[in-house]
Amino acid sequence: MKPGEGKQLLAGIAAGIGTLLLTLVTRMPLPLVCALPIGAYFGAYMASKPRVRIGGIALSDANGDDMRQLMKEGYDDLVVLQYASNRIKEPAIRALTESLYARGVNIYEHLQQNPDKISKARRFISYYLDTASGIVAKYENLSRSRVQGSSVERATEEVKQGLSVLVQAFDKEFEHLMQGEIMDIKTEVKVLSQTFRMEE
User: Which regions of 16-133 does DSSP assign to beta strands (E)?
Assistant: First the structure.
């Protein structure tokens, strides 16, 4: 059973039993005595389903099952970055991890508000975000092992370099997703300037 499903099941059972007792006490017709508790069970079960959240926004109706799965995979990668940023001791890598997490949350919030852009973010989610969580997770395992030596120092420097590149990639992807808004601003400013000149 997945986390949260136990509460869903209990909520469904409680609603079903409560509705059954209500139908019996009010002496409803037999078809309603059978149908209403079943409907109450499924209604309460679905209503109590936990909602995955990114920042303050629920991870909900993306465009289709494929897009929802893509968003869920990206969410899992963001969780890795969030937990790692609290555990990594090396200051530079911790700062880069926190930066990637914050940028990732900003992108996800934008995608939640603009679900039509999720397909454009496929490369960000399936490659850049996945790569970031993979590098951070491997570094965290390496640092927990307490292995020391020149090879570990080189690996640490490579992690810093890789995460720095990813920060730039996150920014570039976000800029790519925001092109529509950027163009809207340019157009409005251009029209404003033309209107102002015509009225002089």
Answer: 53-54, 57-58
